[in-house]
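User: structure tokens for this one?
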Amino acid sequence: MTLLKKKAEKKTEQEKVDERREEVLARGRKFKYPLQWTKHRVVISTVLIAFVVLGIVVTSGWLALYRFNMTDDMLFRITKIIPAPVAKVDEESVRFSDYLMFYRSSLLSIERQSGDVNNEGSIEALREQYMRAALSEAEEYTFALKLAKEQGITVTQDEINQEYERHRSLGGVERSEEAFLKIIKENFGLDKDEYLRMLELTIIKSKVEMQIDDNANKIATQVEKLLSENGGDYAAIAEALGDKVEYQETGGMVGSQNIDGGRASEAIKLEPGQQSGRFVSINGDGYYFVKLIKKTETEVDFVSIKVPFTEFQKRFDALREENKITELIELKVEQ
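Assistant:
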């Protein structure tokens, strides 16, 4: 016993410190591993909860888009970020955001017409018609994008910006960008990016139409030749070409900002008796020729000839007949 006591007394201070440290660490280990296990369970639980919440969000979004046909602002913003398809055209996905963009740009028309509609059923019928029209429009533009890739047709940002500036000064009126964006918002409910997307799709479709429609190009060349030969008698040319072209007279003065495919805004640039050259309509559905009769600072009287594009629509209709257009939502109004 005395010998053990002497040995204990011989321990150095460092040895005593080491022993004390080991004693403290040993006590700590009793709590370390249970705490690690608790953290592990917390992480697993958090991940599981996150997956459940994500599943609920995805399921709710899917039901809102594909079953309940909801079109609210939040869903529109989500589909602009997540490229969800609303249909397929010859295996090419149609963006849900494009469909909603076209539909929402028509909402103001519903609101304006609702004042003349006496019951909610009539308003709902209008909404369904606009949904059908918007989906068909989105499908057509998607087909145009597909043909553009096949034909090697592209649209640059400069072209889109130039078209935007042209729209900003339609009718010869120079508007500030702030004023123009306000007009877009009030009339179409769109912001600048959405309007630029519409312009991009319109330009692409116009380029595709011009590229593939050999018949329209041939007729337009024929119109140019006849105009040079008969001194610009539009009525006579229309009679000679029959249903190949569409002839129209304003029948009086109309506003230079008239919504007519760009004819009025083109006419106001001319002098009485002067003719425009061939130009593509703003909505890209054909070539126009315009002859000014008379004008004031804000109004014009003119005659016009339109050479409609038909080839694109023939190909698109053929896809539908061949069941190569698959829609992922069900609309009450059939195509």
